[in-house]
Write a sequence for this structure.
């Protein structure tokens, strides 16, 4: 969760600072996105492998009933959150389309698409952070 | 969230069976130690299947492991 929070916070902070400064560069955003994605994957896979080795837990062991219950609860909460965040992002984006086009006269369509895509991506990342938080809190409370 | 109105004797049964650890019990019924700890502390009610498996490990009836706390009528 800390990885997701730190890595993606930096990415989104950088992106929205670029948007606020009206200097969006599609190529640079894509590069930063790929680097962020790469770091996330490497850190998460590394941590999972390290945890598996340290706890001697077989990675292929299926979750037991309490773990499944907690995962289901976290998924349910996140689905509800996504149901709220995605429409807000899309409606907000639609309402702001003219403003975005006016702010980026060099590439209005590309800028609108980039901001839309990153808005939706931000909703997904936020949901994932909430999901992992629910996971951790539930395990702490029950186990 | 209020704890389920069920008590259990898993801790005593583990003690009576050669001080079996939570991990050993968990391994024998295909659960994690954390889940056994949650059941033992009455923070989680296991499924009927898991309850039978726990009773089977100790060689007792399910009612000897889990007891329903009858509500006090007022």
């Amino acid at each position: 969760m800390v990885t997701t929070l730190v890595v993606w916070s930096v990415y989104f902070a950088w992106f929205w600072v670029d948007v606020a400064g009206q200097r969006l560069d599609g190529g640079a955003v894509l590069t930063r996105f790929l680097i962020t994605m790469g770091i996330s994957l490497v850190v998460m896979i590394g941590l999972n492998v390290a945890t598996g080795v340290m706890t001697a837990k077989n990675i292929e062991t299926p979750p037991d009933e309490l773990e499944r219950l907690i995962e289901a609860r976290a998924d349910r909460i996140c689905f509800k959150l996504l149901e709220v965040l995605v429409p807000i992002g899309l409606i907000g984006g639609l309402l702001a389309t003219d403003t975005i086009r006016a702010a980026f006269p060099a590439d209005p369509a590309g800028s609108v698409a980039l901001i839309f895509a990153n808005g939706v991506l931000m909703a997904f990342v936020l949901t994932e952070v909430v999901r992992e938080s629910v996971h951790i809190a539930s395990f702490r409370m029950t186990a | 969230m209020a704890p389920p109105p069920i008590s259990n004797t898993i801790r005593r049964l583990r003690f009576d069976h050669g001080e079996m650890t939570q991990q050993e019990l968990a391994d024998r019924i295909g659960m994690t130690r954390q889940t056994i700890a949650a059941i033992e502390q009455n923070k989680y009610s296991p499924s009927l299947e898991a309850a039978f498996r726990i009773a089977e490990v100790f060689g007792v009836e399910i009612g000897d492991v889990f007891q329903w706390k009858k509500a006090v009528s007022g």
